[in-house]
Amino acid sequence: MKGIDHLISYPRALLFMVLALLCSLLATPARANCATFSADSSLGTISSLALVGNSQRGAAAGGFVCTGSLQLLSTAFIRVSLVNSDFKLVGSQGGTVPFNVFVDPGYTRALQPGQSAEFGATNLLNLGGTGAGVPLYLTTTPGANVPAGTYTGTVTLRWHWAVCDLGLVGICSWYRSPGVVQPCPLGLVCGTPSNWGEGVLTTVRVTLIVTKACQIVSLPAVDLGRKALVSQFTEVSQTLSVRCTNTEGFTLSFGNGQNYQAPWRQMAFGNNRLRYNIYGTDKSMLTPSRTLDAIGTGLNQGFQVQIQVDPNQKDVPPGTYVDNVVLTLSY
């Protein structure tokens, strides 16, 4: 009877081991696979004035991804080559912004047409839990003086890969792009490809948004000088400078000052007032509603105004007469 009991218990133990192994296999993560995809990469938003003197940088999807059990990746041989790009972002309102493609976050290794760069498993970065890819790094070249708008360009890449998906038993399953040949001395341990094959083409679309901007570059204070009599004050010219986005319209308007009494602005010294006004080069009086209008060039633009004391007013007591006028730049 003891022998029979022993024969009955053994299959039960074997069945338990088979079920445990089956459960383990069912729990195995999805295996890795690699492919290319058409990528959309954004360089973000920058004002036109900032773009002239600065580079706009950012990491971009390179159009290559590996999905599945990425945590088990042990070895990867990846190569990318730049097939075609004119390295220009073309604007919806005209103008171009030059840019460059780099393969490192330090922006030291530029990728040029006909050149290639190689990567390993450590270069595969997580893309949000669904896979990992090799990013590229884009940067604009300073100096572009362009209108506001959306700027786009494309980069055509060719990807080659041989990626090991390390299984539970420690054996690599290799995923290779078309034509890749690797030396595999033991049949399982494979090295750097001896032939990278034809690879797979993909296109990366790059977008940059340039916004309009204006700034007052200089607005010097006006000194009418020292005179004993009102009639001795002469017209004084002053030049102010602004800078606005190329082709962007803008308006300069002058406030009425702190002591306005129509139709005169007035400088004050205590309770005393000295009437004056501000005029354009065409001798028209500049007011909040009568403005200077212009089109921006992206460069500094100077505007000359004249300040004239009313010669027909009565003489005023000696003192320092002051007024503050607000200049509003609208665009």
Q: Can you tell me about this structure?
A:
- The chain is 9% helix and 45% strand.
- With 331 residues, the chain is mainly β.
- The protein folds into two domains: 30-211, Immunoglobulin-like, CATH 2.60.40; 214-330, Fimbrial-type adhesion domain (Immunoglobulin-like, Sandwich), CATH 2.60.40.1090.
- Strands 1, 2, 3, 4, 5, 6, 7, 8, 9, 10, 11 and 12 form a twelve-stranded mixed β-sheet that branches. It has a five-stranded antiparallel β-sheet with strand order 13-14-19-17-16, with no helix packed on it. A three-stranded antiparallel β-sheet has the order 18-15-20, with no helix packed on it.
- The chain is rod-shaped and about 105 Å long.
Nearest-integer average pLDDT? 87
What distance separates the N and C termini? 101 Å
Q: β content, as a range? A: over 45%
Report the CATH topology name of the largest domain.
Answer: Immunoglobulin-like
> How would a textbook summarize the main sheet?
12 strands, mixed
Q: What is the percent of helical residues? A: under 10%
Number of domains: 2
Elements, N to C (H/E): HEEHEEEEEEEEEEEEEEEEEE
Low-confidence parts: 1-30
Summarize the structure.
By secondary structure, the protein is mostly beta strands. The chain is 9% helix and 45% strand. The strands form three sheets. Strands 1, 2, 3, 4, 5, 6, 7, 8, 9, 10, 11 and 12 form a twelve-stranded mixed β-sheet that branches.
